Amino acid sequence: MSDDFGTFTLPYCSFTAADADGARVGVGVGTSVLDLTAAAATVVPAHAHLFAAGTLDVFMAAGADAWHKVREALLVGDLPAEHLRGQDEVRLVMPFAVADYVDFYASEHHASNLGRIFRPDSEPLTPNWKHLPIGYHGRSGTVVVSGTTVVRPCGQRRAAGGDITVGPSARLDIEAELGFVVGAASDLGTPVGVEDFARHVFGVCLVNDWSARDIQAWEYVPLGPFLGKSFATSISPWIVPLAALDTARIAGPTQDPTPVDYLVPGEPWGLDIALEVELNGEVISRPPFAEMYWTGAQMLAHMTANGASLRTGDLFASGTISGPGVDQRGALIEITWNGTEPITVADGSQRGYLEDGDSVVIRATAPGPGGQRVVLGAVEGTIAPARDAS
């Protein structure tokens, strides 16, 4: 299925083709892909060298001035037809090299639902939740491009009776998220403020942070997620420039209590992005990113508040996106209330969590200028049976 990006979104990708040598940088134009590696000498001659390697790494590292000049040229330029290819003629590959990966926990609705599931007699949110964007460092080496098969992970699990077993996860889940891709690096020891968000973040992508809930439940105390999350994180192959989301920017929910100084919002960096989650071709949820409590700018500011440096290719994700409605939950653990309220899928079978052969697709759009929609593309993956863990 081809995405129609129109002529405004202009998302970037990396692709290979049977008749081309190596990877190429592409730009989504309508339902076509502009081979920017081939066309750059004509379309953006001063920046042609940024696309020669076939991935986005060099371009992202060039900084915000280069990003804006290239986008302006693409928006107003007469794009050469001889360098346009149909999306079905190319194979989309990993668009950039992931440096570090951080996953946040920025949805109040998601965090509250999990608190109610696991701590029904306590306050749903932990005491720190409204004071800082909670996150953890993930494993960049297992971030994979959309379409990569996800092998069911194996690991330790603790049964209700206390026995410890090792085997395939029986509670394999999804997490519908938005990822922020860092372009411009920062210096070690120098925090990046909320006001510098657009200077460092190149664009966004869709993320499915697959989660083995049973493995996670046994291992995460006291240091947090580890093997239950690190086996695979899928990202969409299209990186939508931050500038394409100007019309989608909103203030976001009111934050109470007021955050500490370095997290006080400056410019509005909430985003009105509408997601859809499909399980085996059927839409099971429509999470709204507009409901997220913490913005991408606040996540970036907190991630670097201790002086941690940014590198080109850093990826930080929002955590599960959920809204207040039952049909707006971004993970099966919420949708099925930890498997106790299974859903019925198109073939009549029921799901508490994912089964082998299940396919998940996450799509998203946002408001664009003149009533257009900014299409963010899709991230998809299919579950393969576990390999022998013995």
SSE topology sketch:
Layout: E1 12-16, E2 24-29, E3 32-35, H1 36-43, H2 57-61, H3 64-76, E4 84-86, E5 91-93, E6 101-104, H4 108-118, E7 135-137, E8 143-145, E9 150-151, E10 154-158, E11 164-168, E12 172-173, E13 176-182, H5 197-200, E14 201-208, E15 211-212, H6 213-219, E16 233-235, E17 240-241, E18 249-250, E19 270-271, E20 274-279, E21 282-285, H7 296-303, E22 315-317, H8 332-335, E23 343-344, E24 350-351, E25 359-367, E26 373-384
Parallel strand pairs: 6-22, 8-16, 9-26
Antiparallel strand pairs: 1-2, 1-5, 2-3, 3-4, 6-7, 10-11, 12-15, 13-14, 13-22, 14-16, 14-17, 18-19, 20-21, 20-25, 23-24, 25-26
Describe this structure in words.
The protein is an alpha+beta fold. Helix content is 15%, strand content 28%. The chain contains 8 helices and 26 strands. It has helices at 36-43, 57-61, 64-76, 108-118, 197-200, 213-219, 296-303, 332-335; strands at residues 12-16, 24-29, 32-35, 84-86, 91-93, 101-104, 135-137, 143-145, 150-151, 154-158, 164-168, 172-173, 176-182, 201-208, 211-212, 233-235, 240-241, 249-250, 270-271, 274-279, 282-285, 315-317, 343-344, 350-351, 359-367, 373-384. The longest helix has 13 residues, at 64-76.
Characteristic terms for this protein:
SH3 type barrels; 8 helices; 2 domains; 8-stranded mixed sheet; single chain; 390 residues; Fumarylacetoacetate hydrolase, domain 2; alpha+beta
